[in-house]
Design a protein that fits this description.
mainly alpha
């Protein structure tokens, strides 16, 4: 079975052309549509595979996870260690969000959203050259390791952002 990138005929890369991905998805959708291709076997399987491939590659977090797993094998979600400084920063943000929500302090929540956005931007700026190297074919283990670190950081950012956006959720 081909991988999702091969399925759409695009190179394995983190930075992909989303309009090209969408175009390829619709082409494949027509190819596997039961009203057009009644004689092809396994149309349901191909349609489901096409939909799953598109969903995974469209989302930056799931695309990053897919690339890492495609390159190195399954990610051990609970064994990855991030730098202590980053973990402390995330814990402090989490606590500040909790307190601001308890106090219903909108100004503080907005400030925390800005702080989170700044942390995300800094992480993106640091990882961008790594992604560029990977997309150009560099599969050095250190590059893959940095991509994994960013994957775990991104998960923290997403959870904190969701927590800031949802007044009832708890991390």
């Amino acid at each position: 079975m081909q991988n999702y990138f091969e399925h759409f005929g695009i190179p394995i890369a983190h930075e992909i052309d989303l309009s090209l991905l969408r175009k390829k998805y619709y082409e494949k959708s027509r190819e596997f549509h039961p009203d057009i291709n009644q004689n092809k076997p396994d149309l349901d399987f191909h349609t489901a595979y096409n939909n799953q491939a598109y969903k995974i590659l469209l989302n930056p977090l799931s695309r990053l996870k897919y690339i890492i797993e495609l390159t190195e094998g399954p990610i051990q979600e609970n064994t990855q260690t991030l730098p202590q400084e980053f973990l402390i920063q995330m814990m402090e943000l989490h606590e500040a969000i909790f307190e601001a929500k308890e106090l219903q302090d909108t100004k503080q929540l907005n400030r925390l959203m800005e702080e989170l956005s700044l942390a995300e931007t800094n992480a993106q700026n640091k990882i961008h050259p790594i992604f560029r190297d990977f997309d150009q074919g560099n599969r050095d283990p250190e590059i893959l390791n940095q991509m994994k670190f960013y994957y775990f950081k991104l998960k923290y950012f997403i959870r904190l952002r969701e927590n800031l956006s949802n007044s009832e959720s708890e991390i």
